[in-house]
Design brief:
With 274 residues, the chain is mainly β. 7% of the residues lie in helices and 31% in strands.
Length: 274
């Protein structure tokens, strides 16, 4: 069976918008603990985690097309960093913040690591996506893909980068520069009997429709907030609809909102009508 698991990171995989931030990422790579997949977290030393907490295939799982015997999976490729510290020492020093008992995670500033309390263990974890000082991933593109796998031949039918940098720029700015890098994503996809895959999970706030046969984008629509949810499809009175909850996601930095958006399907291929 083909695997979506990425290769282990190497120093020359480090990437940046400039030579300076690329160099800083390479320095951090050398200073961190990393022995490939499943490198255990270290106490007092930063460990690189890859695949990490946002992927490769996260909680959204995969979609199966039983008629075509195809499997569809969108994946993210974003390394994280983690560092452990002794809980007893931090509690004795009064370092742990007041929010700890409420299960909330603070938003880190700059390139700092956020605190994960890890209740029931003797450790506290500091963790965050591995970003350079410009808040761009230290690992270069591609950061997100959509893949179709033939369940009979067990081969990849097609695989494409999915998503652009339109809503993710230096210092997490929204610069409207849609580079086709593929974007990290959280949220599932669905497939229709008519041969269309829908997915809105990427960090650039689009709901997209893909051709089952080729994986090419055949339609897209701009969402008012991040579509980090799995779309659904249903039929009323002989008319088919596709619906998505666009609420945004704090970790991905997408726009927040409270939207439920439905589209009617039209045309022979079943793409949404405007």
């Amino acid at each position: 069976m083909p695997s979506l698991t990425p290769k282990n990171l190497k120093e020359n995989d480090m990437w940046g918008a400039t030579l300076l931030d690329q160099m800083l990422c390479r320095i951090e790579y050398r200073q961190s603990a990393y022995e490939g997949q499943f490198t255990p977290p270290h106490v007092g030393k930063t460990t690189i985690v890859y695949p990490a907490f946002y992927g490769v295939v996260d909680w959204q799982g995969i979609t199966i097309d039983p008629a075509r015997k195809l499997m569809f999976a969108n994946a993210s490729y974003l390394p994280f960093r983690i560092k452990l510290d002794h809980r007893n020492r931090l509690e004795e020093e009064g370092t742990l913040p007041m929010w700890q008992g409420q299960g909330n995670e603070p938003t880190p500033k700059g390139n700092a690591l956020a605190i994960s309390p890890d209740y029931g263990t003797p450790y506290v974890a500091y963790t965050n996506p591995w970003l350079n000082p410009l808040q761009i991933p230290c690992k270069g593109p591609v950061w997100g893909t959509l893949t179709a796998i033939d369940l009979v031949t067990k081969k990849i039918v097609w695989q494409h980068p999915v998503g652009t940098t339109r809503d993710t720029g230096p210092f997490r700015t929204h610069n409207n520069l849609p580079l086709p890098t593929g974007m990290y994503n959280i949220g599932g996809n669905i497939v229709t009997k008519g041969g269309v895959v829908f997915m809105g999970a990427t960090a650039d706030d689009y709901l997209r429709a893909f051709d089952v046969a080729t994986g090419n984008v055949i339609w897209r629509d701009r969402l008012p907030a991040g579509g980090q949810a799995t779309p659904m499809s249903y039929d009323i009175g002989g008319k088919q609809y596709v619906l998505i909850a666009a609420g945004g996601h704090g970790g991905l930095g997408t726009r927040s909102g409270d939207y439920i958006i439905a589209y009617t399907l039209d045309g022979e291929q079943g793409t949404p009508a405007h």
